[in-house]
């Protein structure tokens, strides 16, 4: 239910936002739009070079550099049980 609840809330928020948002032409900042929800479109550019010093990686004219590290770990439990069989023999179950 958690995923569905989040998706439903996101849908309602986007629906409300689409009714309130106003499109801004020419990407000009106007004081009368202060505090309002605005929509702009265009190409995002930069001259920056992003660097990841841990891996010695760099990329020029890049807007975002993201590194995702994952680690998996588990623990094992071992149980040993010894059973006496008819005739005096023993069986160990692990």
Salient structural properties:
alpha+beta, 94 residues, 21% strand, 20% helix, two-stranded parallel ribbon, single chain, two-stranded antiparallel ribbon, elongated
Structure description:
There is one protein chain. The protein has 94 residues and is α+β, with helices and mostly antiparallel strands. Helix content is 20%, strand content 21%. The chain has one helix and six strands; from the N terminus they run H-E-E-E-E-E-E. It has one helix at 2-20, and strands at 22-23, 38-39, 49-52, 57-60, 81-84, 90-93. The strands form three sheets. Strands 1-2 form a two-stranded parallel sheet. Strands 3-4 form a two-stranded antiparallel ribbon. Strands 5-6 form a two-stranded antiparallel ribbon. The longest helix has 19 residues, at 2-20. The mean pLDDT is 89.
Radius of gyration: 30 Å
Helix content: 10-25%
- How would you state the average pLDDT, rounded? 89
How far do the termini sit from each other?
A: 40 Å
Secondary structure class reads: alpha+beta
Strand order of the largest sheet: 1-2
How many DSSP helices? 1
Largest sheet at a glance? Answer: 2 strands, parallel
- Strands, count: 6
Question: Could you outline the blueprint of secondary structure elements for this entry?
Answer:
Elements: H1 2-20, E1 22-23, E2 38-39, E3 49-52, E4 57-60, E5 81-84, E6 90-93
Parallel strand pairs: 1-2
Antiparallel strand pairs: 3-4, 5-6
């Amino acid at each position: 239910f958690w995923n569905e609840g989040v998706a439903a809330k996101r849908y309602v928020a986007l629906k409300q936002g689409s009714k309130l948002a106003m499109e801004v032409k020419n990407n000009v900042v106007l004081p009368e739009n202060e505090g309002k929800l605005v929509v702009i479109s265009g190409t995002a550019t930069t001259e920056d070079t992003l660097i990841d010093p841990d891996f010695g990686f760099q990329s020029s004219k890049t807007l975002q550099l993201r590194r995702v590290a994952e680690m998996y770990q588990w623990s094992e439990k071992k149980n040993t049980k010894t059973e006496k069989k008819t005739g005096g023999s023993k069986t160990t179950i692990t």
